[in-house]
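User: Please predict structures.

Assistant: First:
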Amino acid sequence: MAIGWTMLGIGMLTVFIVLLSVVLLGNLLIKITNQFSLTIANSDIDTATSIPTHVRDVLKIVVEKETGGQGRIHKIERLNPTNDE
């Protein structure tokens, strides 16, 4: 009976160590990838669009607030373009 409990403890410890190493290595890989990824400047919004500057600024503020500073606007595209352009 004692051998069973010993094997159970060793097995649970092994699984814990393996899962912990997977989590730690995953976090390390994410940090390394984020370090070497291309960084986009604050002017990542397409300035050639016909959207006014104040509207783009408001959109940028809302996206940063809602995503906790993690989200960025890469492209603004009208879903229903008008013919008045």
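Second:
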Amino acid sequence: MLPWNPRHAYGQRIRAFVARTEHSTLEADDIRAYVKLTLARYKVPRDIVFVDTLPRNSTGKILTRDLNL
């Protein structure tokens, strides 16, 4: 066991929540490969969570507090 927690030392980990369509064959590795081409290495999400739908409020904004963080 480490005497310090790397998550607290370096900040929070990036997690992406993805809502797939019905017949989507998209995988987590596909998303990471695309993001690595377009963003800096430190911005690539380590965790990718697939959900049925993203929770939204009445104005259409995503409710991040309702996602399983």
